[in-house]
Specification:
Elements lengths: L2 H5 E5 L3 H12 L8 E9 L9 H14 L5 E5 L5 E6 L5 E6 L5 H17 L10 E9 L2 E9 L7 H14 L13 H9 L3 H11 L29 H13 L4 H17 L3 E8 L18 E8 L6 H15 L7 H7 L1
Parallel strand pairs: 5-6
Antiparallel strand pairs: 1-4, 2-7, 3-4, 6-7, 8-9
Length: 344
C-alpha cells in the first residue's frame, strides 16, 4: 500500500449541496470564491481567563481536526470526472501568528483590517487539506484577533457554534479530545442519504413543479459573475416581534412560513408574476439519525420554493396552504437541486 493510500481514512461521496458548491468553486478559479467563510474572535487578557496561551489555542485547533473527521476532508476529481471527498487520518493545523503590536495604533488597525480581508478572499486549494486556516493577530495590550477561515464545503452554520464550543473546551484542557463525549461522524449522514428513496423524491418534486414555465428572475440581465455577498439588516422592535409570533401561533403557522409567504408576495410585486419559484435553504438534519444535532458537516440543502398566489385568498389562508405544501415536501428535501431541475 502506498504512503498516500495509508494517509487516507475514508473516501466518501458528496452531499447534494457539496456537489453544487464544488461546481461553483471550480467553474471559475480566477475570481473570489464566495463560499469561503470567516469567523473573527476578539480575545482579550482581561476577559477573566488570564493571558492568552497561544500554544493551547493551537493545540485546541489540532484537537478539532482530530475530533471531527469532516474537517480533515479534501476534494479530488476521479479519472471518470466525478468528485469524491477524501478524509485523511491526520492533518496538521494551517496556523500562522502575526505580531502587529509594534506598529502605531492607526497603522496597526489598518494592517489588521487588511489581513482580515486578505485572509477572507484567499482561495483554498480544495485538493489539499485542511480547508480551514487559523491566523492569530497580536494587537498589543493583551488584545488578540483570531481568524478562523474555512470553506463552506466542510460545514454549515449549525456546525459553527458546535465548533466554537469544542474549540474553547479543548483550549481549557490542552487539546485532549479524550475528555469530550464522542461525536458521530459525518459519514453516517451520507450513509443515511444514500438509503433514501430517490425515485419517490423525484416524483414529489415533479408534481410540485409541474407546469412551471420559466424562472422567477428579478434582474434578468444582471451580471452573474461571483461577488462577495452583502448584508442588509432590518429589525422589528420587541412589541411587533411578540405580536407577530402570537399571530402566527394563533393561526397554526411557523414563523418560517410567514417569512416565506411575505417574500413570495414581494417577488410577485417586483416581477408581476403570480407563480413564484425561489430558493429555500433547509437545515437537512434528519431526526432519524441519532445524534445528528451534534454532528459537524454540511447538511443544509437548497431546494425550490414554489408558491402560486391566489388574489381572492386571505393572507391567513395563503400561508396555511403554503405551509401544507411545504410539509408534503419535507421528506424529499435531501434531493440535489440539479436533479430537481432536470426533473422539472
Amino acid at each position: 500500500m502506498s504512503r498516500q493510500a495509508k494517509a487516507i481514512e475514508d473516501i466518501l461521496p458528496l452531499s447534494p449541496l457539496q456537489e453544487g458548491l464544488l461546481f461553483h468553486s471550480v467553474y471559475d478559479r480566477s475570481g473570489d470564491d464566495v463560499y469561503t467563510a470567516q469567523s473573527v474572535f476578539e480575545l482579550t487578557d482581561d476577559s477573566g481567563a488570564g493571558p492568552l496561551d497561544t500554544d493551547a489555542l493551537r493545540a485546541a485547533v489540532a484537537g478539532l481536526l482530530r475530533r471531527h473527521a469532516a474537517l480533515r476532508a479534501c476534494f479530488r476529481e476521479r479519472k471518470s470526472g466525478e468528485w469524491a471527498q477524501l478524509v485523511l487520518r491526520h492533518v496538521e493545523p494551517d496556523w500562522r501568528e502575526i505580531d502587529l503590536s509594534a506598529l502605531p495604533e492607526a497603522e496597526r488597525a489598518a494592517e489588521a483590517d487588511r489581513i482580515v480581508t486578505e485572509d477572507r478572499t484567499r482561495r483554498f486549494d480544495l485538493s489539499r487539506p485542511p480547508l480551514m486556516r487559523c491566523t492569530l493577530l497580536r494587537l498589543g495590550d493583551g488584545v488578540h484577533r483570531f481568524l478562523l477561515t474555512s470553506h463552506h464545503l466542510l460545514y454549515d452554520g449549525w456546525s459553527q457554534p458546535l465548533l466554537a464550543r469544542d474549540l474553547f473546551a479543548l483550549y481549557e484542557n490542552g487539546g485532549d479530545t479524550d475528555q469530550q463525549a464522542p461525536v458521530r461522524p459525518y459519514r453516517d449522514y451520507l450513509t443515511w442519504l444514500a438509503g433514501q428513496d430517490r425515485e419517490a423524491a423525484l416524483r414529489a418534486w415533479g408534481d410540485a413543479l409541474a407546469d412551471v414555465d420559466e424562472a422567477t428572475l428579478v434582474a434578468p440581465g444582471a451580471d452573474r459573475s461571483p461577488v462577495v455577498p452583502d448584508e442588509l439588516r432590518t429589525e422589528l422592535d420587541e412589541g411587533d416581534t411578540a405580536a407577530l409570533l402570537r399571530w402566527a401561533r394563533d393561526n397554526g403557522l411557523t414563523l418560517s412560513t410567514v417569512v416565506q409567504g411575505a417574500w413570495a408576495l414581494v417577488l410577485a410585486s417586483v416581477t408581476g408574476r403570480d407563480d413564484i419559484v425561489t430558493g429555500l435553504t433547509v437545515n437537512g438534519r434528519p431526526p432519524e439519525v441519532a445524534g445528528v444535532e451534534s454532528m459537524v458537516g454540511l447538511f443544509i440543502n437548497t431546494v425550490p420554493l414554489r408558491h402560486r398566489i391566489r388574489r381572492a385568498e386571505t393572507l391567513t389562508a395563503m400561508l396555511r396552504r403554503l405551509q401544507d405544501e411545504q410539509t408534503l415536501l419535507l421528506p424529499h428535501q435531501h434531493l440535489g437541486l440539479s436533479e430537481i431541475q432536470r426533473q422539472s
